[in-house]
Amino acid sequence: MAALLSCYSFSASAQTDVPQAQAGAVESLFNVQAGIVGIYVNYEMPLSTRWALRAEAGLDLWYYDAYKYNGTSVIKDKGTFFAPDISIEPRWYYNIEKRARKGKHTENNSANFITLAVKYYPDLFKIGGPDYIYVPNQISFTPKWGIRRAIAKSNFNYELGIGVGYLRYISDSQFLARRDDVVVDAHIRIGYTFK
User: Fold this and answer.
1) For labelling, which of 16, 40, 83, 144 has a CA lying 20 to 30 Å from the CA of 74?
2) Domain of life, per the record (predicted)?
3) CATH number for the domain harbouring residue 111
């Protein structure tokens, strides 16, 4: 009986010594990323070995091409400005375990993923652009496929993703011709992971 209890206590203590991050499992990550059209801060929380929940806040670069009346005539005005966005997405890193079995690098969630990106653009503020330009309140739901890799096994990373989804304008502006639209969501980013 004493031998059985000592085996049980050895087994229980051995299980608590298992490291938190195992090869081929999704990790908890805090990232800062920059893309062609913005800068973002995000956090990925593991839900299982292949699932993570990602929350993100960022500034997207918007382009405008508008006509304005300058007092005597109508002139064409165009340029860019930054506007905030908030998103949340469950990510399924579907090949992270397969990459680990093949001996490939999986740290920093280096794997391919499928996600449903839910993105909200609040009409809070903008950086740059004229006063008459604004981003109407809108929300989008976009299924996406993507790839994430660490660069040279470092904390630097890159991400690519693409998807087509549904966009809903939630502002009650009289200037919006329609409430629904199709959105193409593509991103190319490079970033750094803080651990």
Assistant:
1) 83
2) Bacteria
3) 2.40.160
Structural domains of the chain, count: 1
Residue 158: domain span: 25-194
Establish if 139 belongs to a structural domain: yes
Tell me the pTM: 0.80
Mean pLDDT by 10 residues, the chain (195 residues): 39 38 81 95 96 97 82 82 96 96 94 98 91 88 98 95 95 67 95 92
Cβ proximity of 183 and 167 under 8 Å: yes
